[in-house]
Each structure stands twice: as structure tokens, then as C-alpha cells.
Amino acid sequence: MITTNDFKTGVTIEYEGDIYQVIEFQHVKPGKGAAFVRTKLRNLRTNSVIDKTFNSGIKIETAMIEKNPMQYLYQNGETHVFMNNDTFEQLELHESQLEGKIEFITEGMDIKIISYGKEILGIELPDKVVLEIVETPGGAKGNTASNATKEATTNTGLRLSVPLFINEGDKIVVSTETGKYDTRYKE
Q: Could you tell me which residue ranges the Translation elongation factor P/YeiP central domain spans (predicted)?
């Protein structure tokens, strides 16, 4: 149990039968009346975000979330197979549990499986991943405008804007948070 005064970004709590992660919080002490805590919470089961205000000092149950390191092996239809590198135990997750993250996963990648008890909530990706460009038009000669970009498709199916100097076969670093090009990958 923690109190609302102990809220920090990233803390997970059980509230009204669901599991939430604190995204933002603000302690407010008005001139008159009791202090309160204004929060923005992400539901870890549905990924929806809600705004909730708590009275200051209220006790809330913490949720014990586990993050187990695993390696992505392969896709089998609509399921994706992961393996624990210590026990070699394999785990299958449906595409719906990986929504918005499939385009960043490549075979052999190390990720973290987020679970609450026996319930799998999803995965945690590294901040940045290396992907290969499989399709992009050639850059126009003489186009030296700064920040000029073109569309490209990666080996995972992710479509994004890249600088004109990126060609098919190049490896790039992509932010998993924004889904945008970061830099060219240098081996």
C-alpha cells in the first residue's frame, strides 16, 4: 500500500478492479480546503488513459508488475513466439496483445514481457531499434533542401519518413516511442 503522496511517474496501482500506471501527477494545495492529487493514469489492460483526482493521503494498493526478459523467435500466423533465455520456456502472444508494437520487432530481438500474476499485459520494447529499409524511392538529384524526406518501408512493415540519402538495404535506428527515424545505423 502507498498513499497518493507517494505517487511517482511509472508507479503501478490497483484501482477499481483494474491496473493503472501513473503517467503524470500533480500535488495541489488550494488556499482553502484539503490538498489533492491530480493524475493521468494508463490502464495496463486496455491501454486507455484516464484523468483521476484523489484526495491527498488516501491509501492505494500497489500492483506488483513483473518484467521478464525474453527473446522474440518467430511469427506463427496471428501468434508471436517468445522464449525465456534462462529456462528456454516459450510463450505465445496473439497479435492483439502486441498492437502498435509489432512493426518494431525483429527475430532475435530482446524485449521484456510485462505480466501481473499469471496475466500477460503486453511487452516493453527497447527505446530504439535497428530496422532495414526494404522499399523507398530514390532521392531526386539536386534536391538539397534541408529536412527533405521521403517515404520508406522497413523489413517489419513500418512505414515512415526518412532523409533523402537513405536507400534500400540501409539500416536505420528508429525510436519505438515516436515511430520516427533517428539516425543511420553504423555497424
A: 67-121
Reduced to 3 states, what is the DSSP secondary structure of residue 95? helix
Same domain, 96 and 136: no
Handedness of CA 133, 138, 139, 141 (dihedral sign): positive
Judge whether 122 and 94 are in contact, CB under 8 Å. no
Angle at CA of residue 177, ends 86 and 93, nearest 5°? 45
Residues 177/178/181/184 CA torsion (nearest 10 deg): -20
109-139 pLDDT, tens digit each: 999 998 888 888 888 899 999 999 999 887 5
Q: Is residue 88 within a helix (H) or strand (E), and if so which, with residue range?
A: none
Domain containing residue 39: CATH number: 2.30.30.30
CATH code of the domain containing 154: 2.40.50.140
The domain in which residue 40 lies consists of 2-62
Condensed to tens digits (0 to 9), the pLDDT of residues 50-86 reads: 999 999 888 999 989 898 999 999 998 899 999 998 8
Mean pLDDT calculated for residue range 17-29: 91
Work out the burial of residue 64: count CB atoms within 10 Å of its CB; fewer than 13 is exposed, 13-18 middle, 19 or more buried. exposed
The per-residue DSSP string of 130-185 comes to EEEEEE-PPPPTT---TT-EEEEEETTS-EEEEETT--TT-EEEEETTT--EEEE-
